[in-house]
Amino acid sequence: MPNERGVRMTDGRTTGSARAFELLEPLVQAATVRVHAPPGGYENPRSHRTGPTWGSGFFVAPGWVLTCAHVVGEGGAAVRLTGREVGITFSAGSGTGTVTGRVECVLPERLEERRPGRHALWDLPDLALVRVLAPVSHACVYVTDRSRPRFDEVAYFGCTEDLGTPEITGRTTRLRGTAGNGAAIRLGDDDEIEPGMSGGPVVDLARGEVVGVLKARRQTGGGGLAVSVVQLRTLPMAARGQVGLYRRIMQAHDLYHYDQHLSDLDNRRTWTDVHGELPPPPEGDPYAGRGRLTPGERTTLCGLLAELPPPGSSEVVRALVEAARGEEPDPLPPAPLSWRDGLGLLHDPPGGTAEAAAMLRYATDVSVAEYREPVTPGADEELWDWVRATAERLWRPLRRELGERHERGLAERERRRRASAGRAVHGPARRSGGLPPGASVLLEVWAHGWEDVYDWRVSVLAGPAHAGRLTPVDSGVRATLTGLPEALRAPLAEGFRRCDTHETVALLEVAVAPALFGLAVDEWVVVGGVPLGVQRPVVLRHPAGANPGTTHPAGTHPGGAREHPADREGTDASARWARVQTGPLQDERADCVRGRPRTPATEWLTGLPDNTVPVHCRAADQEPTLGSLHAVRDAGYGVVVTRRPPPDPGTSCAPFHRGLREELADAGRAEVLPERLRNLRGRAYAADPDAYWAAGTGLVWEDPARPLPDEEPLQGDL
291: which DSSP letter? Predict the structure, then answer.
């Protein structure tokens, strides 16, 4: 009989699983989606309706939906699956949202050439990955790291129409075994799997982890099959020197839950919170207490591992697992591909060995491993610091063992590096040049007194060979912010025609007061239907003067021209510029500390190394960011990063800071940053979820070789 929550409870169902379902249900429902034809697509042109339900899916990582291949193949026998657009309706706050997704790949790959007939079972693993074609805020499930499922009670979720309208519902059953050499999981017949639920998640109620994807139901009654999520490891391998799709997605998955765990921006329960509240199994947990990592520790460890470059091969992971576990890990396929997969092979170690100890040994070895790419500065040290701190609650002999293990690992890594000195360095090649030395287009925008209108001017700024020479193109007065893109379309197009060459596109320099650094010029479309920030490098500049009648910040001259930072006592802008151009780069959060706003002290700013790039993640027209932008300029910084915050104020800034740190480390020097930021915008425009963190990023670029003339701004109409 159903209980008061509508959960059908059968004989043998434990009260613990009912409580687990109650805790997990809202988290899973928030991440489960309905898959259908794209809005206004080929099946319902000129319509915003979503049409009938094809099936279900779920967000496995930010921007990525996992479902079944037969779901995205619905109604399209002659349509190629990879590249097909589908509609995704997902939970958005108190309502729902719909977005278009594109099928990135299907498993097995032969489904593109050999598709089963209608009503026939599709070949295992019957999975499809869909990338969302717009940056949207959504929840993600927590995916198991275990190589094989435990045969416990589970819940499965998907889209049903019990009450006449589509909704995400959940039911419970038990796992009854495996099929297809472990690729599929058999579900019990405790409840019925309805049409539309295919592609939905199957959740282990004892551990609060997604272990499968609903595939099929039995024609004779309840029960059916689900695909093991471990089959994601069979995604096509990337070209040499690239990070594969599986590693990218699982890295994004772990960082999402890591950020959710660290964030205190809202009071909503996270998966990590719920993992700590799940009832213990009836037989007890032999690894409870000190023998097992807490949910928070496990989430943190996965996040720290995700911040490292991926392992060079599956064999590297297996070797470290064997060293930490004390025996050869499970040899069954699919092989572990990420550091996270190694953790999944360390559950329930043999001989009563503590699981936490095995995982800490493994993490210690990973912290001193050889990586296939340059490591983000400090990431390996942060992992070791966490291991050492976590071991404090364990027994003293383990702490000593881990310390000795770390020292041996460091010595061995140094020995290998010396032995390989002179060989080619692995990792992506870096650009050898920066901005083109020719002329650039200069856009100046000034606030018109205290009114909410703006004066503007478009000019051609000569290159370093004729520093400071300005050729006007057009100007205007009293434009609103919303009207600026249209007013500037033709003048900017003319400026680009003057400056672009057959080899390169010209730089666009936007000179505005710091309060206008959030102006979305990079998103404006001038020509070609492509945003400016995708077409060409776009940088921000402090204006040469300020509007008469406005209040000038400290450091400005009465005549309106801002004093150059190099003229201020205790600053050396030219030295900072030269040092940051050659790198290596060091980022510093200027206006926040772990997501909380802060005002940087002048002494702190002036004392930072010359290769520092101050980073701002909050709104430029609000304090403390506005004051910080003035302060970093007065301290002599010529390269500064800003950002237009995302629409959702509850969105963590951690992915932005993490992504930027990796970008700066890979760039190596500032001279290539304008072009690299353009590439990031291009990736985001092409719907690459790994580049969504860069949305709204701006680069302040005070190049002394491109000085702005000290001219008064337009006065506007009286």
Answer: G
Alpha-carbon span 325 to 433, nearest angstrom:
48
More confident residue, 11 or 220: 220
Decide if 176 contacts 202 (C-beta within 8 A): no
Q: Which of 573, 479, 577 is nearest to 519 (CA)?
A: 479
DSSP states of 148-200 as a string?
S---SEEEEEEEE-TTSS-EEEEEEEEEEEEETTTTEEEEPSSSPPPTT-TT-
Confidence of residue 224 (pLDDT cuts 50, 70, 90): confident
The Cα 29–Cα 141 span in angstroms is: 9
| Nearest-angstrom CA–CA distance, 100 and 89 | 9
Q: Which helix (H) or strand (E) holds 101?
A: strand 95-107
Q: Which residues contact 481 (CB under 8 A, 6 or more apart)?
A: 452, 454, 519
Give the chain's radius of gyration (CA, Å).
Answer: 28
pLDDT band for position 55 (cuts 50, 70, 90)? very high
Q: Each residue of 577-591: pLDDT tens digit?
A: 999 999 899 999 999
How many CB atoms are located within 10 Å of the residue 412 CB?
13
Which residue(s) pair with 86 in the sheet?
Answer: 101
**pLDDT tens-digit series, residues 546-601:** 332 233 333 333 333 344 444 444 457 888 999 999 989 999 999 999 889 999 99
Burial of residue 439 (CB within 10 Å: 0-12, 13-18, 19+) is buried
Residue carrying the six token digits 């097995």: 108
Q: How far apart are CA 329 and CA 12, in angstroms?
A: 33
- The predicted pLDDT at position 6 comes to 37
DSSP state of 506: P
